[in-house]
Amino acid sequence: MTDATVRITVAEAIVRYLIAQRCIVDGAEQPLVPGAMAIFGHGNVTSLGHSLQMHQSELPTWRGQNEQGMGLAATAFAKAMRRQQFMLCTSSVGPGATNMVTAAGVAMANRLPVLFISGDTFASRLPDPVLQQVEHFGSPSTTVNDAFRSVVRFWDRITHPAQVLASLPQAIDTMLDPAEAGPAFIGLPQDVGADAYDYPVDFFATQLRYLSRTRPDSRQVRSAVEMLKSAQRPVIIAGGGVHYSLAEPDLASFAERHAIPVLETVAGKSTLVADHPCYAGPLGVTGAAAANAVLGEADVILAVGTRLQDFTTGSWTAFAPGARIIALNAARFDARKHQSLAVVADAKEGLAALDVELGPWQSPWPDRAARAQQELRAFISERITPDGSLPLSYAQVVGAVHQAADAQDYVLTAAGGLPGELNINWLSKGVGTFDCEYGYSCMGYEISGAWGAAMARRSGRVLALVGDGSYLMMNSDIYSAVLTGYPFTLVVCDNGGYAVIERLQVGQGGASYNNMLRDSLQANGSGPAQARVDFAAHAAALGAEVHTATSADEVRDLVAATRTSDRTVVIIVTVRESDWTGGGSFWQVGIPEVSERPEVQAARAQMDAGLLAQRRGI
Q1: pTM of the entire structure?
Q2: In the chain, what is the straight-line distance between the N-terminal and C-terminal CA atoms, in Å?
Q3: Where in the chain are all domains bearing CATH 3.40.50.970?
Q4: DSSP string covering 349-369
């Protein structure tokens, strides 16, 4: 420690501190923050933007086209890096900041680190109201940046230069904490960001960050082992925490040694390769019937690294009556859900402790995973095989892309019908090669996320699948990928609207309305809309290499032929409006208790009947 100081601005201090943070990835030292994504405006360009430009060789800044999109890209980057590295995202005050709120929600729901720094109004308030300022008459210190409070783990506004010394380390510690992981936000008032201060030189010393691993309490381990040994039909649910712990090989060997079937959540998919002897399939609402049957038979469930979202638990109806849960999780909040027996620990450390205590014990139903896997493969084969009819189904497109993929490729999707189709019909060829954003189910993640994942991946090709609705909602990062030189392959499935929500709408007794193009209102009562977007022309205008396909063979061949392209590739295929892969479990949604439609009345009765199986608890 020295008493030496350096007089620099707040913005410069932030940049220098971020550059000083290092981590270990694949055995090599790397920057903890390998880049920034920025759209500059009057709230951040003159101070933070200036410092980023001065340090572009150490902390490169990538130009976004939309603040939400670059936040989604940063979120996908963090997931692809399994939380070992994260990006800085910065915007101006006002709409630039609020555009990032949705992206922060995605990162928050998925427990992923992203550092959001937005410009803010002047701390002095002397120029108020400034351009883009939203005034709160009874709360003058409130700005639009307060909107981030509900969607980040750490929130702060720097109102004095010295606060950086405490705030930045706390923000980064929070983002890297396995139990608290999520995004952080820092508001930087325009005058404060430009202020100079005598910062301790030691504050900018290189700091090597390591993955923190909490070890379990021995009493919790013994209780969990006692419960497992009493089980006749145990299963393991593998969640996203397995990936973030880098514990995939540990879970695979644990399951194999103790002959326990493994079911995967959407976040946990590709924990095992699909031909692993313990792999029993994807569970839940977007899961397969074969896997859900295993879950429904289980008497003890070891849930590893999962927050047990409703799509995993079938709104808590998918478990057998009396089934007991052991929740191994780094976060105490998740480990205590629904009166689970908590084992609060890192997944790798927790599995190792359980393994030692279990000794040579094996499950009484060692062949259950194999039977489920066989049933799942037969079902998938039927769904993905072309049936001679056009247009193709979602499942047939997924099957064609899968045929062209190899074990290094990284498949990505998000909201709409594709999560269910990929979760069931995609058999993982490699570990840690699947990203379906279904924590926040954010339309538009697919394209921006693919750009971010392409930045993270060092092998294989990022293969993103997107529906026409999500494409229209957020597509500018096709150009971001072209501009920055991080290409990926995008398969656009056009079914003429928000078809999966129309499925929910009609399936629960409602009339089709305002979801499909064919039933969207037009001015002057001119009738159903029939106009379809020329996705090929649009993607080409953004600089992509564009192809169209009609058959499964064409999809497969195009994906294979363009996998080494140095440009972002967009493949457009028209798909069936309503041809969905079944097998999912019950899902609770709000259906009117009173309605004049007999179809709604019937749907409500069916929903009430399904809720009789709902597990009670908190």
Answers
A1: 0.97
A2: 49
A3: 5-209, 385-496+532-574
A4: HHHHHHHHHHTT---S-TTHH
